[in-house]
């Protein structure tokens, strides 16, 4: 994926063991391609209170059914590569048990999701991300298939003072 930076020894994840041993104070997480394991079904990011950037490579977290990115007030960027968070690599589907939550991340400016990632997720909820400037779901030639059968809920309350 063109947005993936070079190796960063302080926050690079090359295995599920690396993921499980991450310190809760990291500010950047880079997940290399192919990181996945049947036993890992929930990706709860709430413990990373100082996280500013999450970058996930291609073909990662295939068995994860719930992604929870909530309350990370310093998070600015989420970039997901191709074919991640999906079981069906060559198709799409609908599984109401597979859910993506992105909520209360007040500094988030970019959400970028690669081709066929989350293609069988049934729920995507994005809420209270008032700084968000870009949501990108990349497509190769004719469609991204990201959240193919899910209903997108984008909720936010912005109060303007005069």
How would you describe this structure to a colleague?
With 162 residues, this protein is mainly beta. The protein is built from one helix and eleven strands. The protein has one helix at residues 16-20; strands spanning 12-13, 28-31, 42-44, 53-56, 66-70, 77-80, 95-103, 110-113, 121-127, 134-137, 151-155. Strands 1-2-4-6-8-10 form a six-stranded parallel sheet. Strands 3-5-7-9-11 form a five-stranded parallel sheet, with no helix packed on it. The chain is globular.
The description of the largest β-sheet is: 6 strands, parallel
Low-confidence stretches: none
Summarize model confidence as the mean pLDDT: 82
How far apart lie the N and C ends? 43 Å
Give the overall shape, derived from the CA principal axes.
globular
Strand content: 25-35%
Architecture blueprint of SSEs:
Blueprint: E1 12-13, H1 16-20, E2 28-31, E3 42-44, E4 53-56, E5 66-70, E6 77-80, E7 95-103, E8 110-113, E9 121-127, E10 134-137, E11 151-155
Please summarize what this structure is:
The protein is mainly beta.
Labels describing this entry:
162 residues; mainly beta; six-stranded parallel sheet; five-stranded parallel sheet; 11 strands; 31% strand
